[in-house]
Amino acid sequence: MTENAIFSPATRPLSIAVLVLPHASILEVASVLDPLRAANRHLGHEAFSWRVVTRDGAPAPLTCGISLPATGPLSSAEGAEVLIVIAGYRLAEVATRPLIRELRQIAPRFALVGGVDAAPWVMARAGLLSGYRATVHWEDLEDLAAAHPEIDVCPDRYVIDRNRMTAGGAAPAQDLMLHLIRTRHGAPLARQVAQSFIATARPGSDPQIAPRSRDPLLDPRVARAVARMEASIDTPEPIATLASSVGLSPRRLESLFRENLGTTPGAYALSLRLATAQRMLTDTKHPLAEIALRTGFSSPGTLSRAFRAHYGHAPGQQRKGPRPPQPDQTGR
């Protein structure tokens, strides 16, 4: 992690502009702003100031159905030291060419530019992450790396590289804000803020998704088997190989799976692969053949049959039916 002067002890207030794009999550907005508010409350003075802006100054419709008021358009962010972009769904609709052009023009006026959740896609399209380390929501890591090889994409919760910072979602954004508070005003204040939200700050280098091997509710051997399944969605292991890897016979592994998860290892592994396929059908435009390859099915037809048996409808209907707002393949 290579940081800049923003992340160093300071007594002067830090001004932040938050660009909220339509179809972002209110949780992500709160994860950025509320730690700063709490820090001000505990300090008894304004150590952080912020303004919320949108592309045109109009309220931003959020995923929960609430419209978030803005203090002005993106141009009104000028004067702040930090610009944080928050994006979620429907990037093909909201990441317009005028927005990308304006973001590219205005970015050099800030000491630090950051992105939360799907916002690294927007930053990448504006050329703001070329030659940088960055992260994005875990569902988009592979696609961002494939689409932008000029970016060193990593699965960390958050990444700070010189004058850029990126966070994988709401919880990592909170971790990032706690890190900002800690570096500027000390660990005791950061702990106070974290305790206000009954939260524990995690390092940026931690993975976004905790491995099931750490799940205290599962038998450790089942947890290790599940972690292996999650790590090999595209190349599922035979159950005998899986059982051997955790020091069990296939029969004993099946018994433990039934006790812990109420299903067999084979059925659980299949459900993981189909859930991944369902997410990709919902959130991307990848062809069915690519989805089948990424989820360990030998052909689109094999995936289709398994999908229909599990969900009661064909993969094509998944894309046509009611679902969360759909972006393009670059973003959730």
Structure description:
The protein contains 14 helices and eleven strands. The protein is globular. Helix 1 (26-43) crosses helix 7 (187-196) and helix 11 packs across helix 13. It has 332 residues and is of the alpha/beta class. It has two domains: 14-196, Rossmann fold, CATH 3.40.50.880; 212-320, Arc Repressor Mutant, subunit A, CATH 1.10.10. The longest helix is centred in the C-terminal third of the chain and has 19 residues, at 265-283. Strand 3 and strand 4 (67-68) form a beta hairpin. The protein has a seven-stranded mixed sheet with strand order 5-2-1-6-7-11-10, with helices on both faces. Helices cover 44% and strands 13% of the residues.
Residue-averaged pLDDT: 90
Structure annotation, total helices: 14
Helix content: 40-55%
Tell me the distance between the termini.
26 Å
Question: Keywords for this structure?
Answer:
two-stranded antiparallel sheet, alpha/beta, single chain, seven-stranded mixed beta sheet, 2 domains, disordered C terminus, 14 helices, Arc Repressor Mutant, subunit A, globular, Rossmann fold, 332 residues
Give the helix/strand layout.
Elements: E1 14-20, H1 26-43, E2 48-54, E3 60-61, E4 67-68, E5 72-73, E6 82-87, H2 91-94, H3 97-106, E7 112-117, H4 119-125, E8 133-134, H5 141-147, E9 152-153, E10 158-161, E11 164-167, H6 170-185, H7 187-196, H8 220-231, H9 239-245, H10 250-261, H11 265-283, H12 288-294, H13 300-311, H14 315-320
Outline:
With 332 residues, the protein is of the alpha/beta class. The chain has helices at residues 26-43, 91-94, 97-106, 119-125, 141-147, 170-185, 187-196, 220-231, 239-245, 250-261, 265-283, 288-294, 300-311, 315-320, and strands at 14-20, 48-54, 60-61, 67-68, 72-73, 82-87, 112-117, 133-134, 152-153, 158-161, 164-167.
